[in-house]
Design a protein that fits this description.
253 residues, conserved putative lor/sdh protein from methanococcus maripaludis s2 fold
C-alpha cells in the first residue's frame, strides 16, 4: 500500500513535468485504487475474524455457566436421603430437588419436665439412649427453648449427638437429665382420665366420688406427678372406671 502511494505520487510529479503520458499516470492511479481496495478488504476480513473470536469466547463462557447449572453442591459433606425429582424432569425455580443429610451430625429434641428447667444448662453433657440400636452415647445441650407447653408442663431441649453406626434421621432417642431429690405428689397412672385437653381424677369424700381437675407433671414407673389440683393425703379412685360418675357412691377398701 505504501509503495503504491509513493509510486503514484512520483508518477503525478513526472506527469506534471510532461515526462510520462496520461496512460502511465492512469495505470499508476488504478494500481493505487486496487491497493486501497485490497487493504479495505483485508481490514474487513480481520474485523470478521475478530467478531467470530469474540462470539466464540462468549459462547464458551455461556456454555461454562450452563454446565455449572448441572452441578449441585451442598455446603457440607453429607448423603442424599431423599430425591424429590426424577432425572430428565424440568425443575421450577425454587423447587426442592434433594434432601441432604449432613454426615456425623445429629440433633435430638427432647421434652423435659418444667421442674428441671433450672437444672439444665447450655453445654451440659448428658447420656443419650438409642433404643433401636441398643446403644448409648453422649449428647451436648445446644439450645433450651424457654417456652413451657401448657399441656405437658414440659420445655424442649435440643442436643447435638455424634454420629453412631446405623443412626438415621427420624429415629427416637432418650436423654437422661439428673433430677436430684425433691418432694412430689404422685398418683397411680390408672387413676387419671383424659377428656380432650382435660385431665382429672376422682377423689373420695364422705363415701362419694368427686371429680377433680388436675395438672400433671412427669410420669414414670406406673405413677404420674400431680402439679396442682390435689392435696397430699386425699384419696383417689384407682383404677378409675370410665363409668364412674361424679357424686356416685364408692366404698373404700
Amino acid at each position: 500500500m505504501e509503495l503504491a502511494k509513493v509510486t503514484h505520487k512520483r508518477m503525478t510529479e513526472l506527469f506534471g513535468r510532461k515526462s510520462i503520458t496520461q496512460q502511465e499516470l492512469d495505470e499508476a492511479t488504478a494500481r493505487l485504487r486496487m491497493a486501497e481496495a485490497q487493504l479495505a478488504g483485508a481490514s474487513a476480513k480481520r474485523n470478521q475474524v475478530d467478531a467470530r473470536v469474540t462470539q466464540a469466547s462468549e459462547a464458551a463462557e455461556s456454555a461454562k455457566i450452563q454446565r455449572g447449572y448441572l452441578e449441585i453442591r451442598a455446603p457440607f459433606a453429607g448423603r442424599v436421603i431423599e430425591r424429590l425429582v426424577e432425572p430428565g424432569n424440568l425443575a421450577a425455580p425454587g423447587q426442592p430437588l434433594l434432601t441432604v443429610e449432613q454426615m456425623g451430625a445429629y440433633r435430638l429434641e427432647v421434652p423435659v419436665e418444667e421442674s428441671l428447667m433450672s437444672a439444665v444448662r447450655m453445654g451440659d453433657r448428658v447420656p443419650v439412649v438409642l433404643e433401636a440400636l441398643e446403644k448409648e452415647t453422649e449428647g451436648r445441650v445446644v439450645e433450651i427453648v424457654p417456652a413451657v407447653d401448657a399441656m405437658s408442663r414440659s420445655f424442649t431441649v435440643k442436643l447435638d449427638v455424634p454420629g453412631v453406626a446405623n443412626l438415621r434421621t427420624g429415629m427416637f432417642g432418650k436423654a437422661r437429665f439428673p433430677r436430684g431429690k425433691r418432694q412430689a405428689l404422685t398418683v397411680p397412672a390408672g387413676a387419671v382420665r383424659e377428656e380432650g385437653s382435660l385431665r382429672y381424677v376422682m377423689t373420695v369424700a364422705d363415701g362419694r366420688a368427686r371429680l377433680r381437675m388436675v395438672t400433671l407433671g412427669a410420669a414414670r414407673e406406673g405413677v404420674v406427678e400431680v402439679m396442682s389440683g390435689l392435696s397430699e393425703g386425699e384419696k383417689v379412685v384407682a383404677p378409675l372406671s370410665p363409668l364412674l360418675a361424679d357424686g356416685a357412691a364408692v366404698e373404700v377398701r
